[in-house]
Amino acid sequence: MYLTLLSGRVIRLEKFLITPTIHSGILAGHPIAIAKRLRNRLHRDVAEVCPCHERVIENMLVVDEGGILLPKFRVIANLLSTPVVPDSEGWKSELLACWFTNNINFTPSDMIKAHVNDVVWERYAIDFSSEDI
Predict the structure, then answer these.
(1) N or C: lower Cβ tally within 10 Å for the chain?
(2) CA distance 38 to 43
(3) What is the dihedral of CA 58, 60, 65, 67, to 10 degrees?
(4) Torsion angle defined by CA atoms of residues 54, 56, 61 and 66, in that order, rounded to the nearest 10 degrees
(5) How far is CA 115 from the centre of its chain?
(6) What is the pLDDT of residues 27-80, one digit of tens each?
(7) Left, alpha or beta for 87 (phi > 0: left; psi -120 to 50: alpha)?
(8) What is the pLDDT of residues 80-120, one digit of tens each?
C-alpha cells in the first residue's frame, strides 16, 4: 500500500501490526505501574515483534498522548520511502512509528494518516544504502 504524506513524500507500508497493550505479558501489578513499565520497555518490545535495523528502532517515532493508563492497543507501522538525501547512494529510507489507541475501527491508511501524515520524515527516518544490507 502506498500513501502520500502532507509533505508530498510517497511512502510504502511495509508492515502494520496491532497488538493489545492490556497486560502485554505482565501478569500482576497496578494498571498505572504496568503502563509505566510498558512505556519503559517499548523499544525492546517493538523490536521483538517488528525486527528492523537497530538504528530504525532507536529512532522510532512514538506517538504517546501520555495518559496515566495506556489505551487498549499498540499500533506499529514500518514505512519505506526514497532516501532522505536526494541523489545519494541511498537505497531506501525507513521509518518505524508506534502509537497507542482505543479505537482500531479504521483502515491502516486512515490510521497512518492520522498519526504520521504531518511528521517530518527526515527527523525520524534512517537512510540505507545497498552496503547496509
Answers:
(1) C
(2) 10
(3) -40
(4) -10
(5) 9
(6) 556 778 878 888 888 899 898 888 888 888 898 999 888 788 888 899 999 999
(7) left
(8) 998 766 655 667 889 999 999 999 999 999 999 999 999 99
